[in-house]
What does this fold into?
Amino acid sequence: MRNYLTQALTFDRRQPPNWRRALRASIAVGLPLAVALVRGEFMPAVYGGVAGFYTMFVDNGGPTSERMTAMVYMTVGMLLCGIAGFVGRWVPGAPLAFLLAFSLLAGWLQGTGNAVELMSKYWLIAFLFGNSDPTLSPLAGTYLLAGGLAGIFSVLVDLWLFARPEPQFGPMLFEAMSRLLRRRNNNAHFTIYFASKILAGYVIAYGLGLERAYWVPLTIAIVTAYDPQLSIYKMVQRLAGSLFGALLGWAVLTWCHNDILLALIITGFSASTALLLNRSYWMAVVPITALVMVLLDFGGPQASTSLAIARMENTVLGCAIAGIGALIYIRTRATLPPSARHHRLPH
It folds into this structure.
């Protein structure tokens, strides 16, 4: 157990900090917040900040056109899924039907490479955001698009400053297509496993009436990896990072109430995430958690203590459901056909 925790909570000093990625993240998150400060539109700016932040995760470097295309797909997909979530509130049974559809799509796309894997999860998360707020302003969609455009702009600024694209360090769209074509099975077993956990988390969280209940299925989606063993690692890392991140977010919200300073802190958290992401996932989760909490307060004053408690209890519940599901899947995987047991495709 000690060795397991040591491996999960390690810090890889061999990996250099990615300063170019940190610059892009700062631009992608900072621009929508700057517009919000000028116009005084704080609540919709939350969605612009989130979209800008997410562009960092679907950008693995490489050809500029492919990177920009990935951001366009992510942004437009998030907009459509967010609209589906918002509209679905008024149709009986629609939220669960939409949730099932988006969960099945995200589950089916797992194993194609982290850019497309995360893109599909962000579509699902956008649906959860849209479904959670009955007072959502139409400006939220505008700011979401602005966040995606800020991500594209950050790539162009990076290209202008460094005169060449950043070397590709992970699979992008073409590689994802190649992996889909080379699959030896239809991924049905993993897709059902993934969607079942999301639905279970959604039903349990909303059934318990939790504050910010959408954080539970969101957590499950993020920590569930194509390799179920990796899901256990990510669960431990997410729990550790969320604990410290909630404390950091609580401290910022307790002692900082200036909008300009909050925007600068959020931008700093996005850059910190980029610098830590390839060195230690659990440490990167610290600024991610704090960023989300501070971003919500930027959109409207929050009770810092209750927000931190809600974040922690929802993360613990989401990780517990994800962990139990992963353990069940690991035990039942031995009964699957041989072609469905091996998740990683040869390179």
The chain has one domain: 17-167+177-338. The mean pLDDT is 88.
